[in-house]
Design goal:
By secondary structure, this protein is an alpha+beta fold. The chain has helices at residues 17-24, 41-52, 67-72, and strands at residues 3-6, 11-14, 28-31, 34-37, 79-82. The protein is built from three helices and five strands. Strands 2-1-5-3-4 form a five-stranded mixed β-sheet, with helices on one face.
């Protein structure tokens, strides 16, 4: 597991399940416009897996509305904002 987590103060690199839990537990997690609170670990893990799965990182959005949206939505990195 290798995630970049952006807090309001700094960037944290997550490299273990324990560190992920300790960093996010009790906080709201926003992933690509979806915000959920870390109350249910399974729900957060499912959200992170769906965002990080290889089929979602093809450089194309799920349902492109226009070619310009396609270029905006290319996945270069995924950051998680912690509130």
């Amino acid at each position: 597991m290798d995630l970049a987590v952006t807090t309001q103060k700094d960037m944290v690199k997550i490299d273990s399940d324990t560190q992920l839990r300790e960093t996010l537990e009790g906080k709201e997690v926003a992933v690509m416009g979806i915000t959920i609170k870390w109350e249910n670990e399974t729900a957060v893990r499912n959200l992170l897996s769906s965002v990080l799965s290889p089929k979602n990182h093809t450089g194309k959005p799920h349902a492109p509305d226009s070619p310009s949206e396609n270029s905006r939505n290319k996945c270069k990195s995924t950051n998680y904002k912690i509130k």
